[in-house]
Every structure is written in structure tokens, then in C-alpha cells.
């Protein structure tokens, strides 16, 4: 279940691109629906073929799907089409993993760099070389990844899922707070529901998130629990330490971080998009 959730999460990341999408109100739902269909097809089709070719489903008890270990799809491809198809599937898996790593590295590194530019992190982390690459942020992100290599794959997945679920709950809370307190501000894309409709919409995923968070406790996976709690505690300590360094001027920051959601909107919303917004909403945002 954790692996399935890990494979199908991070759909919320599309929100960071909403301000860059032309006609986001109609394009975003279509793009999400298309991406969802393609993603599900990319999982269901190979697994369905592998199940039919392997025949493990005909076995009983623990023997069923015992061969379904890492690299099994490559073996199935070899059984179907020989070395050509088997090698192609393995090569595709390698390229996919490299692409996934680069995508994750890019998003994390540029997030660190942007946080430094907006004053949340020290200014040094905003450094870019002559190719506009955030090299220091990449090195920091690489150190975090290397620290996770001491864990096995399933522990890493569960750890990432727990941290992601906590972040999702924060996103849900922020979304509901803004929808309740400022329902009329301009947004690149607005969910066509009222406040209570949004609560009902978020209720099923919130329950599922709580289930994912509770799974390590039920299964007594203390290493995952320790890493998750440690990550939360470390984040709070790091925040207090950065505040202390800012106050004592021990580290240099590019600016003071945004104080509220209005400052954040000023930093991150492309102002050219406001030409399409209602003038009253723009005035309330700016003022």
C-alpha cells in the first residue's frame, strides 16, 4: 500500500505551475485528467501483461507471486520477446529512474534556492553559477539523499510517505483557511465548490492520510516512526536556529521572509495574470 501511494502521489505539485499556465481554469482539469489516465495505464498495462504471462495467479498460498521481485518485469519481457524486448524494458527502467531523480533534484534544489531568495534560508543557498544552476542547493539536496541510502527501499518509501502526508495535511489546512477567510481573492484556478463542499472533498484523502500515518505504529516500524518524528523535530529546531541567527546577524539573509499570504502572493504571482482578474479583487490583494 505504501509503495502504491508513493507511486501515485505528488499530484499537488501541479499547483506550483498554475500561475504559469495560460487559461489555467480550463487547462488544469483537462491536464490532470489526462495525466491521471496515462499514469494509471502505465501501471495497469505492464502489470496485466506480466500477470498473464507469468501465471503466478494460478498458484496457491505463499507461492503466488513469489517471483515478483525487483527486475521481474524485465524477465517477463525477456520471456516474451527475447533479449531485445528484455533489454529495452531494462533500459527504459534505467532512463525512467534517472529522469525521476533529476526531476526530484531539480524541484528540491530550486525550492531551496527560492526559499533563500525570499529570506527563509541563508542567502548563500540562493547562489547560482554562470549557467544559472543552484549548485549549493544541489549539493545540500545530494547530502540529504545520500543520508537516506543507509535505509532499505521500503523504509525510505514509508518515511517519505509519512513526511508527505504531514505536508498534505498542512496544505489542506491552509487551503481551507484561505477559502474561508478570503474566498474572493483571485486565483489561477479555483475549485468550483464552496467552503463546506471543499471540506467534503478533502475528507476522504484526509482519512486515508491518517491511515498511512498510523500504519507504522500498527506495524511497530519504530525506525520509520523515529525518522519521521526526528524530521519534524529537526525542522522545528532548524527554524528556531535560523531565527536566532537572523536576530543575532550570524548569517546573512537576502531579505525578511514574507509575513503573511499577501506577501507570498506578491512574491510568487505573475502580475501580468492580474489583468484577467476582477479589479476589486486585485485592489484588495495589493492594499
UniProtKB/TrEMBL annotation:
Protein origin, superkingdom: Eukaryota
Subcellular localization, as worded in the UniProt entry: Cell membrane
Any one Gene Ontology cellular component term annotated for this protein: plasma membrane
Keyword Transport among record annotations: yes
Residue stretches spanning the membrane: 31-53, 80-99, 134-153, 159-178, 190-218, 224-242
Pfam families named in the record: AA_permease_2
Membrane topology classification: Multi-pass membrane protein
Gene Ontology MF annotations: polyamine transmembrane transporter activity
InterPro entries, per the entry: AA/rel_permease1, RMV1-like
Keywords, alphabetical: Cell membrane, Membrane, Transmembrane, Transmembrane helix, Transport
Family: Belongs to the amino acid-polyamine-organocation (APC) superfamily. Polyamine:cation symporter (PHS) (TC 2.A.3.12) family.
Protein name per Swiss-Prot or TrEMBL: Solute carrier 38 member
Species per Swiss-Prot/TrEMBL record: Perkinsus olseni (Perkinsus atlanticus)
